Amino acid sequence: MTKYDFLVFHAQYDAFLEKLRNVGVLHVATLEEGDANLELVREKIALQARIDKQIETAQALIAAYNSAKGVTPLTPAPAGNLSLDEGLELLARFEALQTEAVALHQNVTAAERELQRMAPWGDYSAERLQRLADAGYRIGFYTCADRLYKPEWEEQYNAFVVNDSTNTTYFVTVTREPIADIEAETFEMSKLGSHKLQAELEAAQMAYAEKQAEIRDFAVANVEDLKRLTLQVGEIIDIDRVHINTMKAADNTVMLLEGYCPTDTVEALEAMLKEEGVYYESAEPTDEDNVPIKLRNNAFTRLFEPLTGMYGMPVYQEFDPTPVLAPFFLLFFAMCMGDGGYGVLLLLFGLAVKSGKIKIEMFDGLGSIIMVLGAATTVIGLFLGTAFGVNLTTLNWIPQGCKDLMITGKFGDTDFDIQMILALGIGVFHICLAMIIKAVGYTKRYGFMQNLSNWGWLLLILGGLIVAMLAVGEMVSVDAAKYALIAIGAISALGIYIFNDPKRNPLINIGAGLWDTYNMATGLLGDILSYIRLYALGLAGGMLGSAFNDLGAMILGTEPGIGSWAGFIVILILGHTLNLVMSALGAFVHPLRLTFVEYFKNAGYEGKGEKYTPLSRKVES
Questions:
Q1: What angle do CA 545, 417, 538 make, to 5 degrees?
Q2: What's the confidence (pLDDT) of residue 333?
Q3: Which of 168, 170, 171 is nearest to 160 (CA)?
Q4: Which of 14, 137, 416, 451 suits a disulfide with 132, CB 3.0-4.6 Å?
Q5: Residue 115 CA: distances (Å) to CA of 112, 120, 143, 194, 496
Q6: Backbone phi and psi for residue 112, each to the nearest 5 degrees, phi listed first
């Protein structure tokens, strides 16, 4: 990145910002005092959130309609060249339509509730009841619990039971005189008859359906305009933020702006600045600058940049963790899935998403990474000897040479599964790699003398492991290994306990080293043991898949019929679908945890950087 400072006369400032937006390469620096003025853009941010919510509503309506069988799919109309005010009027109209739909839905609910309330009285006519009242009869409608109904009321008050199918008795009294007292609750009858209540419900439902259709038609005609509107508001927000982060001088007549531009794109920026005659200064960023981050990765690693972004972008002096995150997350995911058959399904699903044959909003743009994860799961799953819950080492038709490549069985003469030892070994390697990256990265940022403690721990742990492995492999003698470990321990102790901070009192350094030792001894073991989840999740998924296979085989029986085969197929499809979804969820969450907690902690990764977001034009003129 190259740092720029601009000095612009206030009358030319807005035109200058438009030129910057057309070039689209400058990231405007955020001033520390700028946060207090964010109130200026909050209203517009809230407006953009309203627009985005209506876009989601419109897209959901169109998708729901298109997913129905036997309908001609709806295709949104292209966006028009609407002004900002016209776009806001469009938003207000769409929101008003939905408000009207809510009111109509309330009418449907009220009509349904009234019809349900009157249902126990059956089919009745309000007009006939009125004619009886006009003839001098007093008709009372009552309800009471079944146990409280008294048959003598039929003689005393000419009572007739209308409905007693539930625990409540509904009855009517027909008398010439008012009833003074009866131990039952009066029931307020609807002024409409049952037929009119039903007609009222159908009318309310029709009005609501017509309004929903109107909203859907509006969405088809205007959803692209709403998308354009949110981009227009986004441009206004960008400009407002630039104004917030602009310093003013000389009684607000001169505007001072600071920003950053990728070094490989400065030609376009400086060409515009020279053409406009804008005064500027450029320089290399310093350690104190909050430099924005633009990641540069190859096509494979770029797929995993969103995972890095979930934790936080690196600061300018840090290493980008994505190149290490990508292969390890891929390996961890595949091991947690642990099933080659599920990997094939993921691969096909990712291919369908990428080709557009499966359109699910939450998977938009993820087809490629799903394919990569599926391919890795297929390969690793086959090496682990499992496909659709079947232990491949038990199948006779698989060549022995392929079985020999599968990582199964016990580790040496121990009772530990070799897959568990493999998971722990990967954890040790991952943690050691993190410590190497921390030592190198901190040395680059702060200097070698300030990182003797990190190098001491790296020498102690990595050097000790290497010497131990050489001794176990009988590549060095026991005496040589003993002296090597003593030398490694002595040199490491100097960095850890004596020179961990050369500017500090040695006694304080010793105390800090002891505290660091306690944290390292307790934390490092727990970090490494966390990698057992790579083995445990794969084992759990395989056992659950095998259980569904066994359950299906039990239903199939020894003499299967059509019903047995149908049950067998249903159990396999439902069981393995459930297992696949659960395994995929675990295989995403747990590798992410191993990366964000165990790896980033030991790598000293901060993730407090600011993403490079240049001021650019979002809407074509």
A1: 30
A2: 94
A3: 171
A4: 137
A5: 5, 10, 17, 8, 80
A6: -65, -40
- Order of strands, sheet of 168-175, starting from the edge strand that comes earlier in the sequence: 159-163, 168-175, 138-145, 185-186
CA 240 – CA 39 distance, rounded (Å): 11
Q: How many CB atoms lie within 10 A of CB 529?
A: 13
In contact, 234 and 28? CB cutoff 8 Å: no
Could you report how far apart the first and last alpha carbons of the chain are, in Å?
A: 29
Residues with Cβ within 8 Å of residue 482, at least 6 apart in sequence: none
Residues 333 and 376: beta-carbon distance below 8 Å? yes
Per-domain residue ranges of the chain: 37-112+199-241, 125-192, 417-529
Give the whole-angstrom CA distance, residue 399 versus residue 393. 10
549 alpha-carbon distance from chain centroid:
32
State residue 4 phi and psi, 5-degree precision: -125, 140
Residue 584's identity, in one-letter code, is A
d(CA 295, CA 366): 19
pTM: 0.73
What one-character DSSP code corresponds to residue 408?
-
117, burial (CB in 10 Å: exposed 0-12, middle 13-18, buried 19+): middle
| Blockwise average pLDDT, block size 10, the chain, 621 residues | 84 83 83 57 83 89 83 85 88 92 93 90 82 87 91 89 87 84 87 84 93 91 89 83 76 80 87 84 82 88 89 86 92 92 92 84 84 93 89 86 85 82 90 89 82 81 83 80 84 78 75 80 84 90 90 83 87 91 92 91 86 81 57
Give the type of residue at 554.
Answer: M
> Under a CB-based contact definition with an 8 Å cutoff, are residues 601 and 527 in contact?
yes
CA–CA separation, 308 and 299 (whole Å): 15
Strands 185-186, 138-145: parallel, antiparallel or unpaired by DSSP? antiparallel
Q: Which of 391, 353, 356 is nearest to 372 (CA)?
A: 353
Measured in whole angstroms, the distance separating CA 38 from the mean position of its chain's CA atoms is 27
* Nearest alpha carbon to residue 294 among 18, 2, 30, 16: 2
Token output for 14 = 């807005």
Q: CA 427, CA 333: separation in Å to the nearest integer?
A: 14
The letter for the amino acid at 438 is: K
Which residues, in sequence order, are bridge partners of residue 312? none
Residue in 216, 231, 214 with CA at minimum distance from that of residue 79:
231
CB atoms inside a 10 Å sphere around CB 236: 14
Enter the tokens of residue 272. 């515009």
Gyration radius from the chain CA atoms: 37
Location of structure tokens 């790296």: 458
Cα–Cα distance for residue pair 293/317, rounded to 1 Å: 10
Alpha-helical regions (H) of 257-366:
266-276, 299-302, 305-311, 322-337, 340-355
